[in-house]
From TrEMBL:
Signal peptide bounds: 1-22
Keyword Repeat carried by entry: no
PANTHER family attached to this UniProt entry: MEMBRANE PROTEIN, MEMBRANE PROTEIN-RELATED
Matching InterPro entries: YibE_F
Keywords: Membrane, Signal, Transmembrane, Transmembrane helix
Record keyword Transmembrane helix present: yes
Protein name per Swiss-Prot or TrEMBL: Uncharacterized membrane protein
Organism of provenance: Tindallia californiensis
Pfam families: YibE_F
Highest taxon, organism lineage: Bacteria
Transmembrane segments: 117-133, 140-160, 166-185, 192-212, 243-264, 301-319, 339-361
Length: 366
């Protein structure tokens, strides 16, 4: 019980420290701008004007320099669901206060407040993790906090300082893998075998991805967010292909870890049931388990990437684009290489883990 409490405290500290560090990565806003929070009390009027609909809204300011005041705000809607933020009484919204040169100010609704619901969902996840997983759940929470810490404290700041995205991702992946496996399973033959298989699978996935990306001439600029990085205030000269490859490695890490530890755990149970089993038979048992796993895990990777690109695929189908035209688009080729590279690394994790487990487990005394 004490260990679980200690791990929970460490997890909270890591998460809080990472959140504070993430705030430090953000660029300071001009002094004339201030973010606020408020609650919509009433929509007093809604009228059409030119090509816009204007909501006249009464908002009580909950946080900021105007806290406690009730302000009347004009909310401009353009009938475009991507950019519009229509509100109704009871909605909690983010506001931007813009101070003008004459000392007056204007308030603009910039977004709905979603963090409270997200925090509640996170708390439900943590609660279920601890209730069902108990000590393993506390360890899992610690590894999640460590993963978040590595991403926010090591990877992202390092990339913004101009360090190699691939090198940072590989180092972070190694730390995350070793820490996750050893925290949850301890330091033993099973953990070492799983780590060796996972690292081997990731390295293979990285090499395949690098070769395939070079062959199909991926630019790394297929997403809108990547092109926006050209204009960030830090003025970092990113190699966008490196960023793409780093993202593929990180995206495959979770599935590869799952396969590696599953195969290693199954093989340890087989050896425990039959201590005299030969290395060849032990490898065969691991391969049989891995074959069952790899089908579902490969589907997991491919379905995850397909789900992310679903609106785009629907758009192509709606306009009867040919399969050849679709495959040759940079954005689609990127997702295909991402999914297939990760799946190849995942598949090769099975034999690598099986061989490593068989050798390490047979070296242990009965």
């Amino acid at each position: 019980m004490k260990k679980n409490i200690v791990m929970l405290i460490i997890s909270v500290v890591l998460l809080c420290h990472s959140v504070v560090a993430a705030q430090g990565l953000l660029v300071d806003e001009p002094e004339a701008m201030e973010r606020m929070r408020g609650t919509v009390l009433e929509v007093k009027d809604q009228r059409a004007e030119d090509h816009f609909t204007i909501q006249v809204v009464m908002i009580e300011i909950d946080r900021g320099s105007l806290q406690g005041k009730v302000e009347v705000v004009e909310n401009h809607l353009s009938d475009h669901p991507v950019y519009d933020i229509p509100v109704e009484p009871g909605d909690r919204v983010m506001l931007m206060k813009e101070t003008l040169e004459d000392g007056t100010y204007e308030l603009h609704i910039t977004e709905y407040i979603r963090d409270r619901s997200i925090i509640m969902l996170l708390m439900l996840f943590v609660l279920l993790l601890l209730l069902i997983g108990r000590s393993k759940g506390a360890k899992t929470l610690l590894t999640l906090a460590l993963t978040f810490f590595m991403i926010v404290q090591v990877m992202l700041p390092g990339m913004l300082k101009g360090y190699s995205p691939i090198l940072l991702t590989i180092v972070s992946s190694l730390v995350i893998t070793i820490a996750t496996i050893t925290i949850i399973n301890g330091i033993n033959g099973k953990s070492i075998a799983a780590i060796l298989g996972i690292i081997g699978g990731l390295l293979v996935a990285g090499m395949v991805m690098f070769w395939a990306g070079s062959q199909v001439k991926l630019t790394g600029l297929s997403s809108e967010e990547a092109t926006m990085l050209m204009y960030i205030p830090q003025a970092v000269q990113f190699d966008f292909r490196d960023l793409l490859f780093a993202g593929i490695i990180m995206g495959a890490l979770g599935a590869v870890m799952d396969v590696g530890i599953s195969v290693a755990s199954a093989m340890e149970e087989v050896r425990r049931a039959n201590p005299e089993i030969a290395v060849k038979e032990l490898v065969k048992s691991g391969m049989n388990v891995g074959q069952d796993i790899m089908g579902t895990m490969s589907n997991t990777l491919i379905l995850a990437y397909t789900g992310a690109a679903l609106p785009l695929l629907l758009l192509f189908m709606a306009y009867d684009a040919s399969v050849v035209d679709i495959i040759n688009l940079d954005i689609i080729a990127t997702e295909i290489v991402r999914a297939l590279s990760g799946s190849i690394g995942l598949v090769l994790t099975v034999p690598l883990t099986a061989v490593a487990s068989a050798i390490l487990l047979k070296r242990k005394p009965n």
